[in-house]
## 1
Amino acid sequence: MNFHVLTLFPEMIEQGLGTSITGRAMNKGLVSLHAVNIRDYAANKHKKVDDYTYGGGAGMLMQAQPVYDACMAVQESLEKPARVVYMTPQGSIFNQEKAKELALEEDLIILCGHYEGIDERVLEEVVTDEISIGDYVLTGGELPAMVVIDTISRLIPGVLGNGVSADTDSFMNGLLEYPQYSRPEIWRDKAVPPILLSGDHAKVDRWRKQQSLLRTKQRRPDLYEKYMKEHPDAEKDCK
Ligand code: ADE
């Protein structure tokens, strides 16, 4: 999968994703990251990309021309037009389902805004999806873009190491994950739940499913309700 990020701060994206699991995925050729500096497409000799807003008000706005030209340059380098995701607090809230949907794309263009935003006219021209990572406002779209790229990348086969699968994680099946324990068996007088030491895999699986359901019910009643509508026998199945 190829990510093309349109940004005024390409080094932020490259450095943020260049280490750990995403960095390794790039080195293995499982994903590629192409950070495009929007400033390189400014048509004026001062390489200016922002200006005051019509109608007044504080702050500067990113202008349409460099954003449009940067986006078109990427689109023209591709065999077929790619979706263009604009990171904005006005978008629909990002979740695992949206990540799964976007992971099916071969190329994805991600547009990061800065200052007070981007001229509406270019957004109307090029953007196919608007995504927010939550109801709070960041200084720019770069961190949200990294969140989206990280989440999608770990769904791509081979990105998570040896046989580790993304699909037992929290949210992948619509429930929160069960609690997990490692050595020692007793730590600060707290024992590992005995069932996990029993060696009975069927029992362990049932216990984990119960714990997932319980946690989701207590911590995310919204997710629990949705899950129970789709799986009415879930509680019974792990008794
Ligand atoms: N840009 C600024 N804040 C944002 C948010 N919450 N989500 C996506 N992009 C943003």
Note: The first helix runs from residue 10 to 17.
## 2
Amino acid sequence: MASIKELFLSNVAQVVDNPSALVVERAEGVYLYDAENKPYLDLISGISVSNIGHCHPKVVHAVQDQVAKYMHLQVYGEFAVSPQAKLATKLLSKLNPCMGSVYFTNSGAEAIEGALKVAKRFTGRTELISFKDAYHGSTHGALSIQGSEEFKQGYYPLLPDTKILNYNKLDELKAITKRTAAVVVEAIQAEAGYIVPDPGYLLALRARTREVGALLILDEIQTGMGRTGNWFAHLDEGFCPDIMTLAKGFGGGMPLGAFVAPKHIMDVIKENPILGHITTFGGHPVSCAASLAAFEVLEENPEWMKEIPEKSAIIEAIMQHELITKVSGKGLMYCITMNDQFPVGNLISTLEDRGIITDYFLFAGNAFRITPPLSITTDELRTGLNTIIQTINDIRA
Ligand code: PMP
């Protein structure tokens, strides 16, 4: 009989040439386990999703409980679905009071699509501005604002009237004008290699968009749900985006996204025409129940967010090596860039053999990521990082 790996390689669509095809039997906390019960320390959280660890009992229970009550009911927005109403209320309670309305989606890309549509309707403009090496999803609209020509070139025509600026370059903000419908920006540029905004940069972007009447769409898809030490990264800077997008860790391990906006902005999708954005499974009751449980788990474990600066310091201290050329990031999202000659692919596969999971970035060159669940202990983190340094030495030898 064919193995799972063979069935995967022959029958499931492939998007790269040589996937590791690791077969995971189960996952718990910060570990994945294969069929031989070998543990793998998860340093990517698949990716930035399993913030509260895998299969947290509270989330598992919430899912089981909701599945037993009802799964799908009716396409978005008709019934008052209890897990959606409770989750929207919980999410808004964590945000600045300017935010007033949550639209639930299936994924991050769909959240971005909805946000772009709202921005076009609200402003009556079409120009969309984003940043070099930005990643906002793989659908046509999200791809149109992606900051990498290499990944876009096979898929034209895409949305017209898009413009790419360089992140962290204050002098380029004048390119945002009264023609601009929206500027879409990541709170930390994730797939570019965890590029942190310079102090004041996001505030300057906020001020410029407000000055010209463009909407600021803040993508917190990787940074949300505690990953930078706050519920959402922008809360540290105290500003209010016009639209915020969420996904990944937001679902507590289940597929869920959202775009969130002040009510007067969100309301443009309900008239002329009605049904401005609709989705059959967006805000699925089981996903919303899992997400609500994930919020409660984070509330019940406040030390996970409090300990993030200590864990960041551990990463910055241990990831020092003459072959490491750059350590960038914040919170529990770090990019380790290696010397150009170092075989990062070999490092990632050797680490997998040694029971450590890490991964590439889409646009960060010769680099790998450290994005563990927030529940990782300092000892587990140190052990994982020391194994990485040891493996770098072994590969160089
Ligand atoms: N925005 C960011 C910052 C992301 O990292 C991702 C996914 N990597 C997305 C949007 C798209 O999310 P999804 O894969 O759920 O469509």
Note: The radius of gyration is 21 Å.
